[in-house]
Design goal:
The chain contains 7 helices and 6 strands. By secondary structure, it is an alpha/beta fold. It has a single domain, classed as Rossmann fold (3-Layer(aba) Sandwich). A 6-stranded mixed β-sheet has the order 3-2-4-1-5-6. It is globular. 42% of the residues are buried.
Length: 233
């Protein structure tokens, strides 16, 4: 029997040169690295059996490139971009080393305040509540467009995908790896069920550090099986 829920397949973009170099990326863009592209192609093969009905990306090149590779297995699926799916803006610090951020703020405190909507923003960046509002708007739009169910691909960014999970009570204890897959079922009654978090067909999760435990805002994972998920039809 076909699942009546809308199944959101949330994919973080592939590894980029900025990721490899430890630079803050945000709204800036760098290309996928060769191994990043290989990882995305592994994810694309993993997702090949999923009969996607639609696909969404942020307007940034790294998410579009990731979606392009995944959709080579789904040539009839149309892709749309939504500005609300962009990453959190690091403002004037973008494309600087991560140490430039850590010297200004405690990252645990900062991201907790981002998820709570209380962070004022970095110089040249956006306030957290503006960020949360646009991410919420993007996912609300996608959910409403596809109320009839079926699988939908959403390619976005690490913090943005974690915000979506956190806003609905599922707080990952580990950063999402590049090219990883997280699956959320949105039921007709509005209930959201996290079916899998951080499936890593690319193997890029090996060097993703655990988040500090006190970075959690609220809630627990509704389901966390990153090893034995068969993509639902």
């Amino acid at each position: 029997m076909r699942d009546s829920a809308l199944l959101l397949y949330l994919v973080r973009h592939g590894r980029t040169h900025a990721n490899t170099d430890g630079l803050l990326q945000g709204w800036s863009d760098t290309d996928l690295t060769p191994d990043g592209l290989d990882g995305v192609r592994a994810t694309a093969r993993y997702l090949a059996p999923v009969p996607f009905t639609a696909a969404y990306t942020s307007p940034l090149g790294r998410t579009r490139a990731t979606a392009h590779e995944i959709l080579t297995h789904h040539p009839d699926v149309q892709v749309s971009d939504h500005a609300g799916l962009k990453e959190f803006s690091f403002g004037d610090l973008e494309l600087l080393p991560e140490s430039a951020l850590f010297s200004r703020v405690d990252p645990v405190d900062m991201f907790r305040e981002v998820f709570e909507g209380t962070f004022a923003g970095l110089p040249g960046g956006e306030p957290a509540q503006v960020y949360l509002d646009r991410v919420t708007d993007a996912f609300t739009t996608i959910e409403q467009r596809h109320r009839g169910g079926g699988p939908v691909l959403v390619v976005s960014h690490g913090v943005t995908l974690m915000v979506y999970l956190t806003l609905h009570g599922a707080v990952p204890m580990q950063a999402l790896a590049n090219a990883s897959v997280t699956v959320v079922a949105v039921h007709p009654d509005g209930r959201r069920e996290v079916r899998a978090v951080g499936i890593d067909p690319s193997g890029h999760g090996d060097d993703v550090p655990d988040l500090p435990q006190d970075a959690a805002v609220a809630g627990d994972l509704a389901a966390h099986d990153a090893t034995a998920l068969t993509p639902p039809a």
